[in-house]
């Protein structure tokens, strides 16, 4: 036992310093942007690097962006290695932005690359950059202290609770790309000048490329239907005036039912709300709360139905109805075809249950 | 023990029989030409001078034995009518049994050793007794017998060391001790061949044969209450004359993280303190190693914000992280060692000056990172949370193994090292008893037996 | 006397380690072709074999398989049997070790040299294999105490994640009507083969009592762990995408984010939970293999006995380590294939061992009459 211990120490001493690379000899890539290259089939890869600074107390973000074009992503990355003095380290890469042009062609190549590389994590946020990935990476909001932090925080939904942001992780994307009966979605990030971005749209892909981009309002409804407890405001119309109510809790679920041989998707949406804004200038009372609830529900139903029909007509399935249907039918060979034949005939029933419970701090 | 109440058969012989195995039991016969009187007392709890003055001298001064008997019966603190249980209790509390013509008197001549008793230095507690064991075996026996008044507490003596002739006392509670342990201890003591024995820790070294020991397998303590507590748990205590420390065995790993005031605190507070200590140990062992692993091998593990902070603080540091860690840790060790040797009045000053100024200057000069300073101080502080010095030193050394492992293989090395040491701990035995395992699960099924008030 | 709980730990260890040893991959490969039906079958047969094996070996209190064989089988058959079983156990450890080295290189330290990783594992393993069996059980219990809470936490986090697709799980359920898949069955029974370590550890158990509760625990834990290790990755990667991942469970752990902790990625917590567990399982498997092979050597005479034993043990361990080094060159598919072949062969080995023990018991009974 003693000898073994000695041997262990000796071995450890011998091996020390083999593959040693200190943190200050690495440079962290925090975001990757991939665009189409100038030449057909090329990739233009941009990296956003975080440069650590000695004095932490100074709010002074430093970052650098590298761009390189090459026939393959790996080649571009290798070439960029010789442009910085330190080793490029991708382990902290948290977001991958695809250029709009690339997303309109095929994302599967990039996706395959991202999940195949072992140092890129599976909780990487994917997004589409508009007009291009590089422009999105170049954004530097003034509130940012750590490079690209704002992008990371916004995309992963850790900071802002914006109802318009859908965050998509690499593992979700790969799940949806290969799964039958559900289609992938990606958030769209728009660059507004050099220090602002706008994330309020979601793109639906037909397994490989973008084929439908939802508007901001539709994105909010999409999030309402796919997420628990979406914090948003929704409109309601009472007595010629407009009231906005804020959703404290929300939940939605759906069933696919067959009514006289016809498929019907019935959505149940439950919302508990609080009045946030009232333009009618009248005092809110109990009757009015009820009115807001019912008219809000009506309004919601109309807009949700419009969204669902739009999605149905596009032939895409971002909600995973197909999978839902297959998961509840045992005829595994034919269920998918059966579903696909059914899709154009589907009718939607939206049953919103809006309960506005409070009038806010004043009556 | 039985026989309560029937005074008829209570005799000095009976008490003597009950107290067999007491090396500090004193039995004397006072003889004059025509009659004799027997005396029986426990030396360590009675006042020898007082016995001479109040019991032995009058015997020879008064020729009349009946008068002597009456004198004893009237003197303060004497008892004539006692049952067996009381008799034993009285003797253990410092009573002297005088038997004359079949009649028994117990006189209280207790000795209270407070003058020669120091305060604890190495194991201080916030509340609770502050006496420490002294260098004198008799005094120590007094301290312990006063706290453990049971006839079951046996004491055997031996002399160790051909030259030093150190008096050694082995104490145990006969009804609770594991006799296998006792036998093994005696075997090992018999096999000891050495010239000089001066410290309790030294005895520990000779008793546990293993040459490379990283963890102590006996507790060396200066607190009589810890001794008593462990006696009640069925452990064996060895006390050496001239040392001021007692050796407790067998021990388990967890014993080293129990402070004596854990029992004084409310249960939740006590457990919280114990948890704190365990976290402290984990921190002191792991923090430096993890720092090396995170900075040199696996920066992906911590959040990007933290990684950038570390990278920023290390920007000016010219050498690899494990050198940085080693330099700072060595500095800290120097400080600790130095402040131990310095006179008490200067010690804190040296630490403050050394710690503050050194750390500040080192970061200013860019030789070590800011984060490193925080880390080293955390390590230093948490290391001293371990109540027993022996273990605290072990842990102090042990962290370098972890640093070495993490410098070799990063996080994998740290975890491997942890597994290795856990397995090593599990393979250890303290006098044939398991040293480290999940003792909690053992006691789950059985009720709390006669454990000495432990949680 | 060793308490019965150590027996449960041995089984639990094997159950948990299945994630390392290619079991989920085998199960997922058969997700459309009958894994679902194979799992309950495996639970039934695994529990049955566990029960029978334990019942038989109880009749030989305090004895390991080498002693039982030596007492009841013809002399010439014992060494080859011991070699075969010894190698089987050695392989079990080898596969855990190699695939864990592979996992480490893929997920944790891509920069470290494979040799260093393997070496640091081997140092720990070889150091521990030579310990007393009782200490190994203490160690196992300790490692479980460290790992189990982390694994439970990771699994809990995995299942409550909103990104977990229950529809995909249900979709796999609809494939349950398929006839059981033999390969999945063999792989799934691995979860129950922890009892087989009793072949040597029975030396410590003198009064092993198998209460009905124990059987229930064995069956339930095996069933739950198998279901989780099969279904959780499907919830993350979908019914089709899941087939793309090699170390399915580690990829799954990589997909879980911890919002409020120093460490953001569950992968590392999961890895740190599994590293001690797999090391200790390698230790236990190799310990059993070593003891089986050690029975081939003549028991040394009293003088210098410890050093002779040391050389014998050293020789066996050196052979194990050499095997580990020489198998390092296997590529991913070969390693996988190796693991799958082992999973199959192991089951036949288990059944053979059970039959041999039954025969030995019959011999013993006949002699007693």
Give the tags.
heterotrimer, A: 363 residues, GMP Synthetase, Chain A, domain 3, 2 domains, 10-stranded mixed sheet, 14 strands, 33% strand, B: 455 residues, alpha+beta, 3 domains, 5-stranded antiparallel sheet, 12 strands, disordered C terminus
Describe the structure.
Chain A has 363 residues and is an alpha/beta fold. Chain A has helices spanning 2-15, 73-81, 100-103, 108-116, 133-137, 149-156, 170-178, 216-226, 286-314, 321-327, 335-342; strands spanning 26-36, 43-50, 63-70, 87-89, 95-99, 125-130, 168-169, 185-191, 197-205, 210-214, 233-238, 241-259, 262-278, 347-358. Chain A is built from eleven helices and 14 strands. In chain A, strands 1, 2, 3, 4, 5, 6, 7, 8, 9 and 10 form a ten-stranded mixed sheet that branches. Chain A has a four-stranded mixed sheet with strand order 11-12-13-14. Chain A starts with a helix and ends in a 5-residue tail after the last strand. Chain B folds into three domains: 12-108, no CATH class; 137-251, no CATH class; 267-434, no CATH class. Helices cover 49% and strands 13% of the residues of chain B. In chain B, strand 4 and strand 5 form a beta hairpin. In chain B, 41% of the residues are buried. The radius of gyration of chain C is 21 Å and the shape is globular. The relative contact order of chain C is 0.21. The model of chain C has no long low-confidence stretch (mean pLDDT 88).
Radius of gyration of chain A: 25 Å
- How many angstroms separate the termini of chain B? 29 Å
Tell me about the biggest sheet of chain A? 10 strands, mixed
Helix share, percent of chain A: 25-40%
Distance between the termini of chain A: 79 Å
Largest interface: A-C, 40 and 40 residues
What's the story with the biggest beta sheet of chain B?
5 strands, antiparallel
Task: Give the oligomeric state of the chains in this entry, treating copies of one chain as homo and distinct chains as hetero.
Answer: heterotrimer
Strand coverage percent of chain A: 25-35%
Rg from Cα of chain B = 28 Å
Instruction: Specify the helix fraction band of chain B.
Output: 40-55%
Poorly predicted segments of chain A:
none
How much of the residues of chain B is beta strand, in percent? 5-15%
Global morphology of chain A: globular
